[in-house]
Amino acid sequence: MIVSLYQTTWCRIAKNHNFDTIIRTPNIFRVIKSRRMSWAGHVARMEYGRGVFRVLVGKPEGPRRRWEDNIKMDLHEVGCGGMDWIELAYDRDRWRILVTAVMNLRVP
Known about the structure:
- By secondary structure, the chain is mainly α.
- It has one domain (27-103).
- The protein contains six helices and two strands, in the order ββαααααα.
- It has helices spanning 16-23, 28-44, 51-57, 67-77, 85-90, 92-103, and strands spanning 2-5, 8-11.
- Strands 1-2 form a two-stranded antiparallel sheet.
């Protein structure tokens, strides 16, 4: 950001993490991950035959990652990588704690 004041110009460089600490907005990556985890918990508690459940656990065409793979990566980041996440989603209290942990996770 360049600031001009009384014929004097100086350059002040502001980093993103400085803005985050000043205005206290959550990191967009953490928000996306927590919303994805929240949605996955909701869908995991649905019936197996529902279309949205098949989208969550189904195999996409081509070299794309599944939604389920993203959820497993998010769980691995908070230290719950080896757990069956669908069974874990049935316990709403524990799932809510995990969603909150993903939201508060430090992302560079």
